[in-house]
Protein backbone atom coordinates (compact mmCIF):
# COMPACT_ATOMS: atom_id res chain seq x y z
CA UNK A 1 0.00 0.00 0.00
CA UNK A 2 1.33 3.38 -0.97
CA UNK A 3 1.81 5.41 2.22
CA UNK A 4 1.14 8.61 0.35
CA UNK A 5 -2.35 7.45 -0.55
CA UNK A 6 -3.12 5.89 2.81
CA UNK A 7 -4.27 9.07 4.44
CA UNK A 8 -4.56 11.38 1.45
CA UNK A 9 -8.24 12.24 1.14
CA UNK A 10 -7.71 15.95 0.55
CA UNK A 11 -9.01 15.75 -3.02
CA UNK A 12 -12.24 14.05 -1.91
CA UNK A 13 -15.43 15.93 -0.91
CA UNK A 14 -15.14 14.59 2.63
CA UNK A 15 -16.23 17.77 4.50
CA UNK A 16 -19.67 17.62 2.87
CA UNK A 17 -19.90 13.88 3.51
CA UNK A 18 -18.86 14.23 7.15
CA UNK A 19 -21.31 17.07 7.86
CA UNK A 20 -24.18 15.19 6.27
CA UNK A 21 -23.29 12.00 8.15
CA UNK A 22 -22.92 13.91 11.43
CA UNK A 23 -26.37 15.44 11.13
CA UNK A 24 -27.88 12.08 10.19
CA UNK A 25 -26.28 10.26 13.12
CA UNK A 26 -26.98 13.10 15.58
CA UNK A 27 -30.67 13.11 14.73
CA UNK A 28 -30.94 9.33 14.67
CA UNK A 29 -29.17 8.79 17.99
CA UNK A 30 -31.03 11.63 19.65
CA UNK A 31 -34.47 10.47 18.57
CA UNK A 32 -33.73 6.82 19.41
CA UNK A 33 -32.81 7.77 22.97
CA UNK A 34 -35.38 10.54 23.30
CA UNK A 35 -38.28 8.29 22.29
CA UNK A 36 -37.57 6.07 25.29
CA UNK A 37 -37.63 9.06 27.64
CA UNK A 38 -40.79 10.45 26.08
CA UNK A 39 -42.63 7.12 26.37
CA UNK A 40 -41.48 6.73 29.97
CA UNK A 41 -42.91 10.17 30.73
CA UNK A 42 -46.20 9.53 28.96
CA UNK A 43 -46.69 6.06 30.49
CA UNK A 44 -44.90 6.26 33.87
CA UNK A 45 -46.63 3.32 35.51
CA UNK A 46 -45.92 0.60 32.96
CA UNK A 47 -43.15 -0.65 30.69
CA UNK A 48 -45.58 -2.29 28.27
CA UNK A 49 -45.85 0.57 25.71
CA UNK A 50 -42.07 1.01 25.63
CA UNK A 51 -41.56 -2.74 25.19
CA UNK A 52 -44.11 -2.95 22.36
CA UNK A 53 -42.60 0.12 20.71
CA UNK A 54 -39.07 -1.34 20.74
CA UNK A 55 -40.19 -4.85 19.80
CA UNK A 56 -42.26 -3.86 16.76
CA UNK A 57 -39.55 -1.45 15.62
CA UNK A 58 -36.93 -4.20 15.75
CA UNK A 59 -39.22 -6.71 14.02
CA UNK A 60 -39.86 -4.24 11.21
CA UNK A 61 -36.10 -3.91 10.72
CA UNK A 62 -35.66 -7.70 10.69
CA UNK A 63 -38.46 -8.40 8.21
CA UNK A 64 -38.23 -5.40 5.88
CA UNK A 65 -34.50 -4.62 5.72
CA UNK A 66 -33.93 -7.05 2.80
CA UNK A 67 -36.55 -5.15 0.78
CA UNK A 68 -34.72 -1.92 1.60
CA UNK A 69 -31.46 -3.45 0.40
CA UNK A 70 -33.01 -4.62 -2.85
CA UNK A 71 -34.25 -1.08 -3.51
CA UNK A 72 -30.77 0.35 -2.79
CA UNK A 73 -29.20 -1.98 -5.36
CA UNK A 74 -31.68 -1.06 -8.09
CA UNK A 75 -32.38 2.65 -7.59
CA UNK A 76 -30.31 5.74 -8.38
CA UNK A 77 -27.76 6.43 -5.64
CA UNK A 78 -28.70 10.08 -5.05
CA UNK A 79 -32.42 9.30 -5.05
CA UNK A 80 -31.89 6.57 -2.45
CA UNK A 81 -30.00 8.79 -0.02
CA UNK A 82 -32.30 11.77 -0.50
CA UNK A 83 -35.33 9.55 0.11
CA UNK A 84 -33.73 8.18 3.26
CA UNK A 85 -32.98 11.69 4.56
CA UNK A 86 -36.43 13.14 3.86
CA UNK A 87 -38.28 9.99 4.95
CA UNK A 88 -36.42 9.75 8.23
CA UNK A 89 -36.90 13.42 9.07
CA UNK A 90 -40.62 13.36 8.23
CA UNK A 91 -41.11 10.29 10.43
CA UNK A 92 -39.34 12.01 13.35
CA UNK A 93 -41.26 15.27 12.90
CA UNK A 94 -44.62 13.49 12.94
CA UNK A 95 -43.52 11.37 15.90
CA UNK A 96 -42.51 14.46 17.87
CA UNK A 97 -45.82 16.09 17.03
CA UNK A 98 -47.64 13.06 18.44
CA UNK A 99 -45.37 13.00 21.49
CA UNK A 100 -46.16 16.65 22.21
CA UNK A 101 -49.88 15.90 22.05
CA UNK A 102 -49.53 12.83 24.26
CA UNK A 103 -47.54 14.76 26.86
CA UNK A 104 -50.64 16.72 27.85
CA UNK A 105 -51.38 16.31 31.52
CA UNK A 106 -55.11 15.68 31.02
CA UNK A 107 -55.89 12.07 32.00
CA UNK A 108 -58.53 11.82 29.29
CA UNK A 109 -55.88 12.81 26.75
CA UNK A 110 -53.58 10.05 28.07
CA UNK A 111 -56.29 7.44 27.58
CA UNK A 112 -56.98 8.83 24.13
CA UNK A 113 -53.29 8.68 23.20
CA UNK A 114 -53.01 5.10 24.40
CA UNK A 115 -55.55 3.85 21.91
CA UNK A 116 -55.12 6.22 18.98
CA UNK A 117 -51.76 7.99 19.14
CA UNK A 118 -49.59 5.09 20.31
CA UNK A 119 -50.19 2.90 17.20
CA UNK A 120 -49.22 5.87 15.04
CA UNK A 121 -46.05 6.35 17.11
CA UNK A 122 -45.14 2.71 16.49
CA UNK A 123 -45.73 3.05 12.73
CA UNK A 124 -43.59 6.19 12.47
CA UNK A 125 -40.88 4.50 14.58
CA UNK A 126 -40.77 1.61 12.11
CA UNK A 127 -40.51 4.01 9.18
CA UNK A 128 -37.76 5.98 10.89
CA UNK A 129 -35.80 2.79 11.56
CA UNK A 130 -36.09 1.57 7.96
CA UNK A 131 -35.07 4.92 6.49
CA UNK A 132 -32.14 5.05 8.94
CA UNK A 133 -31.01 1.60 7.74
CA UNK A 134 -31.38 2.77 4.13
CA UNK A 135 -29.17 5.79 4.78
CA UNK A 136 -26.52 3.90 6.73
CA UNK A 137 -26.24 1.05 4.23
CA UNK A 138 -26.17 3.34 1.21
CA UNK A 139 -23.53 5.69 2.64
CA UNK A 140 -21.27 3.38 4.68
CA UNK A 141 -21.36 0.29 2.46
CA UNK A 142 -21.61 1.81 -1.01
CA UNK A 143 -20.83 5.52 -1.28
CA UNK A 144 -17.58 5.41 0.68
CA UNK A 145 -16.23 2.66 -1.58
CA UNK A 146 -16.99 4.63 -4.72
CA UNK A 147 -15.61 7.84 -3.21
CA UNK A 148 -12.35 6.12 -2.18
CA UNK A 149 -11.96 4.79 -5.74
CA UNK A 150 -10.83 1.36 -4.52
CA UNK A 151 -7.93 2.90 -2.61
CA UNK A 152 -7.53 0.83 0.57
CA UNK A 153 -5.78 3.63 2.44
CA UNK A 154 -8.43 6.23 1.63
CA UNK A 155 -11.17 3.72 2.45
CA UNK A 156 -9.66 3.04 5.89
CA UNK A 157 -9.53 6.78 6.60
CA UNK A 158 -13.14 7.25 5.51
CA UNK A 159 -14.35 4.26 7.55
CA UNK A 160 -12.54 5.41 10.67
CA UNK A 161 -13.81 8.98 10.39
CA UNK A 162 -17.40 7.88 9.77
CA UNK A 163 -17.27 5.57 12.78
CA UNK A 164 -15.71 8.35 14.86
CA UNK A 165 -18.63 10.62 13.99
CA UNK A 166 -21.08 7.86 14.90
CA UNK A 167 -19.49 7.30 18.30
CA UNK A 168 -19.36 11.03 19.11
CA UNK A 169 -23.05 11.35 18.27
CA UNK A 170 -23.78 8.22 20.29
CA UNK A 171 -22.29 9.92 23.35
CA UNK A 172 -23.31 13.56 23.00
CA UNK A 173 -26.72 13.50 21.32
CA UNK A 174 -28.46 11.35 23.98
CA UNK A 175 -26.72 13.41 26.65
CA UNK A 176 -28.15 16.62 25.20
CA UNK A 177 -31.65 15.13 25.01
CA UNK A 178 -31.38 13.86 28.59
CA UNK A 179 -30.37 17.30 29.89
CA UNK A 180 -33.24 18.97 28.06
CA UNK A 181 -35.67 16.30 29.25
CA UNK A 182 -34.61 16.77 32.87
CA UNK A 183 -35.66 20.41 32.54
CA UNK A 184 -38.79 19.92 30.45
CA UNK A 185 -40.03 16.92 28.47
CA UNK A 186 -42.00 19.17 26.12
CA UNK A 187 -38.90 21.27 25.45
CA UNK A 188 -36.90 18.14 24.60
CA UNK A 189 -39.61 17.04 22.15
CA UNK A 190 -39.78 20.42 20.40
CA UNK A 191 -35.98 20.72 20.17
CA UNK A 192 -35.84 17.24 18.62
CA UNK A 193 -38.54 18.25 16.14
CA UNK A 194 -36.83 21.54 15.27
CA UNK A 195 -33.41 19.91 14.83
CA UNK A 196 -34.77 17.33 12.41
CA UNK A 197 -36.88 19.84 10.48
CA UNK A 198 -34.02 22.30 9.95
CA UNK A 199 -31.19 19.84 9.31
CA UNK A 200 -32.97 18.09 6.44
CA UNK A 201 -32.18 20.94 4.03
CA UNK A 202 -28.48 20.93 4.95
CA UNK A 203 -28.23 17.13 4.62
CA UNK A 204 -30.15 17.20 1.34
CA UNK A 205 -27.86 19.82 -0.18
CA UNK A 206 -24.55 18.53 1.19
CA UNK A 207 -25.11 14.97 0.02
CA UNK A 208 -25.92 16.34 -3.44
CA UNK A 209 -22.60 18.24 -3.39
CA UNK A 210 -20.81 14.95 -2.69
CA UNK A 211 -22.66 13.25 -5.53
CA UNK A 212 -21.87 15.90 -8.12
CA UNK A 213 -18.18 16.11 -7.12
CA UNK A 214 -17.68 12.34 -7.52
CA UNK A 215 -18.83 11.46 -11.07
CA UNK A 216 -18.44 7.72 -10.47
CA UNK A 217 -21.34 7.84 -8.00
CA UNK A 218 -23.58 8.35 -11.02
CA UNK A 219 -22.47 5.03 -12.47
CA UNK A 220 -24.58 2.18 -11.19
CA UNK A 221 -23.14 -1.28 -10.58
CA UNK A 222 -23.68 -3.57 -13.56
CA UNK A 223 -25.20 -6.87 -12.53
CA UNK A 224 -24.14 -8.50 -15.81
CA UNK A 225 -20.51 -8.17 -14.79
CA UNK A 226 -21.24 -10.03 -11.57
CA UNK A 227 -23.04 -13.01 -13.05
CA UNK A 228 -20.00 -15.22 -13.17
CA UNK A 229 -19.24 -14.61 -9.49
CA UNK A 230 -22.83 -15.33 -8.45
CA UNK A 231 -23.51 -18.16 -10.87
CA UNK A 232 -22.91 -20.91 -8.35
CA UNK A 233 -25.31 -19.31 -5.91
CA UNK A 234 -28.04 -18.75 -8.48
CA UNK A 235 -27.99 -22.35 -9.69
CA UNK A 236 -29.79 -23.56 -6.60
CA UNK A 237 -32.61 -21.04 -7.07
CA UNK A 238 -32.86 -21.90 -10.77
CA UNK A 239 -33.11 -25.58 -9.96
CA UNK A 240 -36.08 -24.90 -7.69
CA UNK A 241 -37.94 -22.79 -10.26
CA UNK A 242 -40.07 -25.68 -11.48
CA UNK A 243 -40.72 -26.74 -7.88
CA UNK A 244 -41.82 -23.21 -7.08
CA UNK A 245 -44.44 -23.25 -9.79
CA UNK A 246 -45.97 -26.41 -8.34
CA UNK A 247 -45.73 -25.37 -4.69
CA UNK A 248 -48.48 -23.88 -2.58
CA UNK A 249 -48.67 -20.24 -1.48
CA UNK A 250 -46.98 -20.90 1.87
CA UNK A 251 -44.07 -22.73 0.24
CA UNK A 252 -43.69 -19.96 -2.32
CA UNK A 253 -43.58 -17.41 0.51
CA UNK A 254 -40.86 -19.36 2.33
CA UNK A 255 -38.81 -19.59 -0.86
CA UNK A 256 -39.27 -15.88 -1.48
CA UNK A 257 -38.03 -15.04 2.00
CA UNK A 258 -35.09 -17.43 1.68
CA UNK A 259 -33.83 -15.77 -1.51
CA UNK A 260 -31.99 -12.93 0.32
CA UNK A 261 -30.50 -15.53 2.67
CA UNK A 262 -29.09 -17.56 -0.23
CA UNK A 263 -27.56 -14.41 -1.73
CA UNK A 264 -26.13 -13.40 1.67
CA UNK A 265 -24.50 -16.77 2.32
CA UNK A 266 -23.10 -16.91 -1.21
CA UNK A 267 -20.95 -13.80 -0.78
CA UNK A 268 -17.31 -14.12 0.26
CA UNK A 269 -17.93 -11.58 3.02
CA UNK A 270 -20.52 -13.86 4.65
CA UNK A 271 -18.39 -15.19 7.52
CA UNK A 272 -16.94 -11.82 8.63
CA UNK A 273 -20.43 -10.33 8.43
CA UNK A 274 -21.97 -13.13 10.49
CA UNK A 275 -19.12 -12.93 13.00
CA UNK A 276 -19.72 -9.19 13.39
CA UNK A 277 -23.49 -9.64 13.68
CA UNK A 278 -23.13 -12.32 16.36
CA UNK A 279 -21.49 -9.75 18.62
CA UNK A 280 -24.83 -7.93 18.83
CA UNK A 281 -26.02 -10.73 21.11
CA UNK A 282 -24.61 -9.07 24.21
CA UNK A 283 -25.58 -7.47 27.49
CA UNK A 284 -21.95 -6.66 28.29
CA UNK A 285 -21.98 -2.99 27.35
CA UNK A 286 -23.03 0.20 29.08
CA UNK A 287 -26.51 0.05 27.56
CA UNK A 288 -29.96 -0.29 29.08
CA UNK A 289 -29.66 -3.84 30.41
CA UNK A 290 -26.24 -3.39 31.98
CA UNK A 291 -27.17 0.01 33.43
CA UNK A 292 -30.35 -1.43 34.96
CA UNK A 293 -28.35 -4.28 36.47
CA UNK A 294 -25.70 -1.99 37.95
CA UNK A 295 -28.29 0.37 39.44
CA UNK A 296 -30.29 -2.47 40.99
CA UNK A 297 -27.29 -4.45 42.20
CA UNK A 298 -27.19 -4.30 46.04
CA UNK A 299 -23.42 -4.67 46.30
CA UNK A 300 -21.32 -2.95 45.14
CA UNK A 301 -23.47 0.16 44.80
CA UNK A 302 -23.34 2.07 41.50
CA UNK A 303 -24.79 5.57 41.30
CA UNK A 304 -26.19 7.15 38.14
CA UNK A 305 -23.28 9.60 38.02
CA UNK A 306 -20.76 6.78 38.34
CA UNK A 307 -22.37 4.86 35.50
CA UNK A 308 -22.44 8.02 33.39
CA UNK A 309 -18.72 8.48 33.96
CA UNK A 310 -18.00 4.84 33.11
CA UNK A 311 -20.04 5.13 29.94
CA UNK A 312 -18.06 8.22 28.92
CA UNK A 313 -14.74 6.41 29.50
CA UNK A 314 -16.07 3.45 27.53
CA UNK A 315 -16.94 5.72 24.60
CA UNK A 316 -13.44 7.23 24.74
CA UNK A 317 -12.01 3.71 24.45
CA UNK A 318 -14.26 3.13 21.44
CA UNK A 319 -13.05 6.37 19.88
CA UNK A 320 -9.45 5.29 20.46
CA UNK A 321 -10.14 2.20 18.38
CA UNK A 322 -10.87 4.40 15.34
CA UNK A 323 -7.24 5.56 15.48
CA UNK A 324 -5.57 2.27 16.47
CA UNK A 325 -7.40 -0.06 14.08
CA UNK A 326 -6.48 1.75 10.82
CA UNK A 327 -2.86 1.97 11.98
CA UNK A 328 -2.64 -1.76 12.64
CA UNK A 329 -4.53 -2.66 9.47
CA UNK A 330 -2.06 -0.66 7.40
CA UNK A 331 0.77 -2.76 8.86
CA UNK A 332 -0.60 -6.32 8.93
CA UNK A 333 -3.80 -6.08 6.92
CA UNK A 334 -7.46 -6.16 8.02
CA UNK A 335 -7.72 -9.97 8.08
CA UNK A 336 -4.94 -10.51 10.62
CA UNK A 337 -5.85 -7.39 12.58
CA UNK A 338 -9.43 -8.65 12.90
CA UNK A 339 -8.41 -11.88 14.64
CA UNK A 340 -6.16 -9.90 16.99
CA UNK A 341 -8.91 -7.50 18.03
CA UNK A 342 -11.53 -10.23 18.37
CA UNK A 343 -9.15 -12.22 20.56
CA UNK A 344 -8.59 -9.08 22.63
CA UNK A 345 -12.33 -8.71 23.19
CA UNK A 346 -12.72 -12.36 24.25
CA UNK A 347 -9.73 -12.10 26.59
CA UNK A 348 -11.17 -8.98 28.23
CA UNK A 349 -14.73 -10.26 28.68
CA UNK A 350 -13.74 -13.64 30.14
CA UNK A 351 -12.58 -12.23 33.52
CA UNK A 352 -15.53 -9.79 33.53
CA UNK A 353 -18.00 -12.69 33.29
CA UNK A 354 -16.04 -14.58 35.96
CA UNK A 355 -16.44 -11.61 38.32
CA UNK A 356 -20.20 -11.57 37.67
CA UNK A 357 -20.48 -15.28 38.48
CA UNK A 358 -18.65 -14.80 41.76
CA UNK A 359 -20.92 -11.92 42.75
CA UNK A 360 -18.08 -9.35 42.79
CA UNK A 361 -16.47 -11.25 45.66
CA UNK A 362 -14.30 -13.87 43.97
CA UNK A 363 -11.17 -11.69 43.87
CA UNK A 364 -11.90 -9.55 46.90
CA UNK A 365 -11.36 -5.82 46.48
CA UNK A 366 -9.88 -6.37 43.02
CA UNK A 367 -13.18 -7.70 41.64
CA UNK A 368 -14.85 -4.37 40.95
CA UNK A 369 -11.84 -2.65 39.30
CA UNK A 370 -11.21 -5.78 37.22
CA UNK A 371 -14.82 -5.92 36.04
CA UNK A 372 -14.97 -2.24 35.07
CA UNK A 373 -11.54 -2.21 33.41
CA UNK A 374 -12.04 -5.36 31.34
CA UNK A 375 -15.52 -4.25 30.28
CA UNK A 376 -14.19 -0.91 29.04
CA UNK A 377 -11.18 -2.48 27.32
CA UNK A 378 -13.46 -4.96 25.56
CA UNK A 379 -15.18 -2.05 23.79
CA UNK A 380 -11.84 -1.13 22.22
CA UNK A 381 -11.57 -4.62 20.76
CA UNK A 382 -15.19 -4.64 19.60
CA UNK A 383 -15.06 -1.43 17.60
CA UNK A 384 -11.59 -2.17 16.24
CA UNK A 385 -12.87 -5.49 14.93
CA UNK A 386 -15.91 -3.68 13.55
CA UNK A 387 -13.65 -1.53 11.39
CA UNK A 388 -11.65 -4.55 10.22
CA UNK A 389 -14.75 -6.55 9.36
CA UNK A 390 -16.36 -3.59 7.62
CA UNK A 391 -13.34 -3.11 5.37
CA UNK A 392 -13.26 -6.82 4.49
CA UNK A 393 -16.99 -6.83 3.74
CA UNK A 394 -16.77 -3.69 1.64
CA UNK A 395 -14.02 -5.21 -0.50
CA UNK A 396 -15.61 -8.67 -0.73
CA UNK A 397 -19.24 -7.99 -1.59
CA UNK A 398 -20.16 -7.70 -5.25
CA UNK A 399 -21.07 -4.06 -6.05
CA UNK A 400 -24.53 -4.86 -7.41
CA UNK A 401 -25.39 -6.71 -4.17
CA UNK A 402 -24.01 -4.28 -1.57
CA UNK A 403 -27.42 -2.96 -0.56
CA UNK A 404 -29.14 -6.33 -0.23
CA UNK A 405 -26.17 -7.87 1.57
CA UNK A 406 -25.78 -5.07 4.12
CA UNK A 407 -29.51 -4.81 4.71
CA UNK A 408 -29.77 -8.52 5.38
CA UNK A 409 -26.83 -8.12 7.75
CA UNK A 410 -28.81 -5.39 9.53
CA UNK A 411 -31.70 -7.83 9.87
CA UNK A 412 -29.45 -10.38 11.55
CA UNK A 413 -28.01 -7.75 13.87
CA UNK A 414 -31.49 -6.66 14.94
CA UNK A 415 -32.42 -10.30 15.49
CA UNK A 416 -29.47 -10.82 17.82
CA UNK A 417 -30.34 -7.59 19.65
CA UNK A 418 -33.84 -8.99 20.21
CA UNK A 419 -32.29 -12.20 21.53
CA UNK A 420 -30.25 -10.15 24.00
CA UNK A 421 -33.44 -8.49 25.27
CA UNK A 422 -35.11 -11.89 25.47
CA UNK A 423 -32.30 -13.11 27.75
CA UNK A 424 -33.01 -10.40 30.33
CA UNK A 425 -36.72 -11.17 30.06
CA UNK A 426 -36.04 -14.83 30.83
CA UNK A 427 -33.59 -13.90 33.59
CA UNK A 428 -34.99 -10.61 34.96
CA UNK A 429 -33.51 -10.54 38.46
CA UNK A 430 -30.13 -8.89 39.12
CA UNK A 431 -28.88 -12.11 40.74
CA UNK A 432 -29.52 -13.88 37.40
CA UNK A 433 -27.62 -11.40 35.25
CA UNK A 434 -24.65 -13.76 35.14
CA UNK A 435 -26.60 -16.07 32.81
CA UNK A 436 -27.17 -13.49 30.03
CA UNK A 437 -23.55 -12.43 30.55
CA UNK A 438 -22.37 -15.99 29.99
CA UNK A 439 -24.44 -16.26 26.80
CA UNK A 440 -22.92 -12.97 25.64
CA UNK A 441 -19.42 -14.34 26.22
CA UNK A 442 -20.35 -17.51 24.34
CA UNK A 443 -21.50 -15.34 21.43
CA UNK A 444 -18.07 -13.68 21.35
CA UNK A 445 -16.35 -17.08 21.20
CA UNK A 446 -18.76 -18.20 18.46
CA UNK A 447 -17.92 -15.02 16.55
CA UNK A 448 -14.23 -15.77 16.98
CA UNK A 449 -14.78 -19.29 15.66
CA UNK A 450 -16.63 -18.03 12.58
CA UNK A 451 -13.97 -15.46 11.86
CA UNK A 452 -11.17 -17.98 12.45
CA UNK A 453 -12.69 -20.20 9.77
CA UNK A 454 -12.74 -17.24 7.41
CA UNK A 455 -9.08 -16.46 8.18
CA UNK A 456 -8.16 -20.11 7.68
CA UNK A 457 -9.97 -20.23 4.35
CA UNK A 458 -8.50 -16.93 3.18
CA UNK A 459 -4.87 -17.37 4.30
CA UNK A 460 -4.54 -21.13 4.67
CA UNK A 461 -3.46 -20.79 8.30
CA UNK A 462 -4.36 -18.88 11.45
CA UNK A 463 -0.91 -18.10 12.86
CA UNK A 464 2.50 -17.48 11.41
CA UNK A 465 4.69 -20.36 12.53
CA UNK A 466 8.37 -19.66 13.38
CA UNK A 467 10.72 -20.78 10.66
CA UNK A 468 12.28 -23.36 13.01
CA UNK A 469 8.90 -25.05 13.34
CA UNK A 470 8.01 -25.08 9.67
CA UNK A 471 7.55 -28.51 8.15
CA UNK A 472 9.66 -29.32 5.09
CA UNK A 473 8.87 -32.27 2.89
CA UNK A 474 11.86 -34.23 1.61
CA UNK A 475 11.52 -36.97 -1.00
CA UNK A 476 14.01 -39.80 -0.95
CA UNK A 477 13.85 -43.06 -2.86
CA UNK A 478 10.18 -42.50 -3.66
CA UNK A 479 9.25 -41.85 -0.03
CA UNK A 480 8.28 -38.49 1.51
CA UNK A 481 9.70 -37.38 4.86
CA UNK A 482 8.58 -34.38 6.97
CA UNK A 483 11.40 -32.54 8.70
CA UNK A 484 11.55 -29.53 11.02
CA UNK A 485 14.39 -27.16 10.20
CA UNK A 486 15.11 -23.49 9.70
CA UNK A 487 18.43 -23.99 7.97
CA UNK A 488 18.42 -24.99 4.32
CA UNK A 489 22.01 -26.21 4.56
CA UNK A 490 21.25 -28.43 7.54
CA UNK A 491 18.11 -29.58 5.77
CA UNK A 492 20.15 -30.63 2.78
CA UNK A 493 22.60 -32.46 5.03
CA UNK A 494 19.80 -34.23 6.87
CA UNK A 495 18.12 -35.25 3.63
CA UNK A 496 21.40 -36.69 2.34
CA UNK A 497 21.70 -38.87 5.42
CA UNK A 498 18.27 -40.40 5.02
CA UNK A 499 18.34 -44.18 4.50
TrEMBL record:
The chain crosses the membrane at residues 33-59, 80-103, 109-127, 261-281, 301-325, 337-357, 433-452. GO terms for molecular function: iron ion transmembrane transporter activity. The keyword Endoplasmic reticulum does not apply. Keywords: Ion transport, Membrane, Transmembrane, Transmembrane helix, Transport. One of its GO terms (cellular component) is membrane. The keyword Transmembrane helix applies. Its main location: membrane. Belongs to the ferroportin (FP) (TC 2.A.100) family. SLC40A subfamily. This is Solute carrier family 40 member. It comes from Exophiala bonariae.
